[in-house]
């Protein structure tokens, strides 16, 4: 077994370090040298460079553009809060948008019925939308609402705008939510809607929101591209 003094650092790590230094001098939209150029510069195989670039793609540092690669803009960092996606994006200087995929009434499955506190099979409103930031597809949001509470949205709501603003306009205020985050890979349909590959890591959020009386408002499944979106939370000490 190698001692700490003799352990060799993997080539891909050394190449990644050199590429990081190279990217530090570039700005958003600048072209990244090709795999061949980087392999020649660092004296390594193209596969070693390819692996380092794959890591940078997943991290969102670079992105494909045409047949080349360029520097990406920083990730959209969303706060974990009761703010809507629209509010969060605007606060970061980004332009939010949405593409409607589906808006329909569906029978509640077991998980949806439990979260919305309705009988199994009860019709609920389902809204599925692609989330945009500056015109780029960054997420896929699937929302379920109790139909008996929000049926009027059918005639008043523009699905390309903030749903939370529309809910508040009905007189309902979001008072709390439970949210879980995990990492997954996108299914082929989801990858197609988000214009990425199924190999790209995703951030999956499950949220259940309630009003001041504890009555359920929504059940949401949100899938975000790991190379385009990050989340942060403000933490404080718990009382002793």
From TrEMBL:
InterPro entries hit by this protein: Bact_HTH_transcr_reg, Chorismate_lyase_/UTRA_dom_sf, Tscrpt_reg_HTH_GntR, UTRA, WH-like_DNA-bd_sf, WH_DNA-bd_sf
GO molecular function: DNA binding; DNA-binding transcription factor activity
PROSITE patterns reported for this sequence: HTH_GNTR (PS50949)
Keywords in alphabetical order: DNA-binding, Transcription, Transcription regulation
Coiled-coil intervals, chain numbering: none
Signal peptide as annotated in the record: none
Ranges where the HTH gntR-type domain occurs: 7-74
GO biological process, one term: negative regulation of DNA-templated transcription
Presence of the UniProt keyword Transcription regulation in the record: yes
SMART domains cross-referenced by the UniProt entry: HTH_GNTR, UTRA
Pfam families on file: GntR, UTRA
Protein known as: GntR family transcriptional regulator
Species the sequence originates in: Nocardia fluminea
């Amino acid at each position: 077994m190698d001692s700490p003094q003799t352990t060799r650092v993997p080539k891909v790590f050394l190449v990644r370090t050199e590429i990081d230094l190279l990217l530090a001098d570039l700005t958003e939209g600048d072209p990244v040298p090709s795999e061949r150029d980087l392999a020649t510069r660092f004296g390594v195989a193209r596969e070693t460079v390819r692996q380092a670039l794959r890591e940078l793609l997943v991290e969102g540092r670079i992105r494909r553009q045409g047949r080349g690669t360029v520097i990406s803009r920083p990730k959209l960092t969303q706060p974990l809060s009761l703010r809507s996606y629209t509010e969060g994006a605007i606060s970061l200087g980004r332009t939010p948008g949405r593409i409607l995929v589906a808006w329909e009434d569906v029978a509640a499955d077991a998980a949806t019925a439990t979260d919305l506190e309705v009988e199994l099979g009860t019709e609920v409103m389902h809204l599925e939308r692609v989330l945009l930031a500056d015109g780029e597809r960054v997420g896929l949001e699937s929302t379920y609402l109790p139909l008996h509470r929000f049926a009027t949205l059918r005639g008043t709501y523009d699905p390309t705008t903030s749903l939370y603003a529309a809910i508040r306009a009905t007189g309902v205020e979001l008072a709390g939510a439970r949210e879980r985050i995990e990492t997954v890979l996108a299914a082929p349909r989801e990858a197609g809607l988000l214009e990425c590959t199924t190999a790209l890591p995703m951030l999956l959020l499950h949220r259940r929101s309630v009003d001041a009386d504890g009555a359920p408002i929504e059940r949401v499944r949100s899938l975000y591209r790991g190379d385009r979106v990050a989340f942060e939370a403000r933490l404080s000490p718990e009382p002793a």
